[in-house]
Amino acid sequence: MKAIVVEKPGGPEVLKPVDVDEKTPRRNEALVKLEAVGMNRIDIWIRSGLYKVSLPRIIGADGAGVVEAVGEDVTNVAAGDRVLIDPAITCGRCRFCLRGFDSLCENHRLLGHGIDGTYAEKIVVPAINLHHVPRELSTVQAACIMVNYATIWHALVTRAGLAPGSTVLVIGAGSGVGVAAVQMCKLFGCTVVATVGDDWKAEKAYRIGADYVVNRRKRSISEAVNEYTGGRGVDLVVEHAGQAVWDEAVKSLSPGGKLVYLGATSGESAAINIRYTYRRQHSFIGSYGWNKHEIPHVIQLFDKGLLRPIIHTTYPLTEAAEAHRLMESDNFFGKIILIP
Questions:
Q1: Residue 157's domain spans which residues?
Q2: Do 87 and 60 belong together in one domain?
Q3: Measured distance CA(191)–CA(213) in Å, rounded
Q4: Does residue 58 sit in the same domain as residue 118?
Q5: How many domains does the chain have?
Q6: Measured between alpha carbons, how far is 47 from 12 in angstroms, rounded to an integer?
Q7: pLDDT-based confidence at 215, cuts 50/70/90?
């Protein structure tokens, strides 16, 4: 079968289709014929060498397709089922898994990072990591769900305890997680201030529910937040951009506000004024991935039509290099999908 294999770190040009052996599902595993692969920033970080992984590696975490075969003892899916893949492979045995916090699994492996991923025509995964595609969604739409929407549910609901009616600042509303955050916050009846980096993205942010939109290249985020909230600030900031906007995000918080952070696209080091933040009783909450028991809640929202993925464009899997160039340009809004 064809797959995109990273043999050495580098630019998009290292992404070339090669022939690899097709695997056979063993006990409790299933073989999925992939119909769509969702791109994420981690794909770029692994390809570029920012994240050190054992090479060669088939990258890619998000994916959806059709079950082609199952191994012994598999009962939750059958050949012909449309499925989306939970890319977090966890042990189910460690102290974190046993208390339902498997996003901290001591043996955690993410597809495309610690194990070969979804940039391929087919993949074998534990059957427990497969979920049926919501009835009203295509497999292309389903490939948008896990890394973005499950991550945001975990960050907003589990980690930050999002309260209905809150005022929320969503950094980077044009990204996959940004879109998911805006949509999820609106389901909770929140007022959403969204940031974008280009004027053309502002209208799209409004269309998905943002109440206010700030072009961070043209205006101070915290000053805009101060204006929109009548000087109160926001109850919660959803932050995944990192160093470039961290200070502005902190300044946007109201007294007693929370900042939940789940990425560091622009840099991983940021300063903090300790006295300013403890006097205002701010909370800083790290969030990573999702717990397995949260996934059904997310899928149900799609099943009921309450959430809908936003897809910017699709590329053939063989054009993964061009897709990576687009993601690195930031000239997109929503999810970029590869079609095997």
A1: 149-286
A2: yes
A3: 11
A4: yes
A5: 2
A6: 8
A7: very high
Q: Which two tokens stand for residue 105?
A: 């699994």
Residue 129's contacts (CB-CB under 8 Å, 6 or more residues apart) are 85, 86, 87, 88, 89
> How far is it, in rounded angstroms, from Cα 335 to Cα 311?
5
pLDDT digits (tens, 9 = 90+) for 35-57: 999 999 999 999 999 999 999 99
Residue 299, domain member (yes or no): no
What's 331's domain CATH number?
3.90.180.10
H helices, E strands: number in the chain: 11, 18
**Residue at 293 is within a domain:** no
Give 195's pLDDT tier (boundaries 50, 70, 90): very high
58 sits in which H/E element: strand 57-58
**Residue-averaged pLDDT of the chain:** 97
- Give 171's contacts (C-beta < 8 A, 6+ positions apart): 178, 195, 221, 237, 238, 239, 240, 241, 245, 249
pTM of the model: 0.96
Rounded alpha-carbon distances, angstroms, from residue 279 to 55, 273, 283, 285? 47, 10, 11, 17
Q: Examine the domain organization and report whether 194 and 268 are in the same domain.
A: yes
Q: Residue 71 — pLDDT band, cuts 50, 70, 90? A: very high
Give 302's contacts (C-beta < 8 A, 6+ positions apart): 134, 136, 137, 145, 149, 308
For residue 309, how many C-alpha atoms fall within 13 Å in the half-sphere facing its CB?
Answer: 28
Binning pLDDT at 50, 70 and 90, where does residue 87 land? Answer: very high
Share of the chain above pLDDT 70, in %: 100
Q: Is 81 left (phi over 0), alpha (psi -120 to 50) or beta?
A: beta
**Is residue 199 helix, strand or coil?**
helix
What is the mean pLDDT of the segment spanning 93-118? Answer: 97
Cα separation, 56 vs 58, whole angstroms: 7
- Domain of 276, CATH number, reads 3.40.50.720
Is the same domain home to 270 and 321? no
pLDDT value of residue 57:
97
pLDDT at res. 158: 98
- Both tokens of 89, joined, read 């492979």
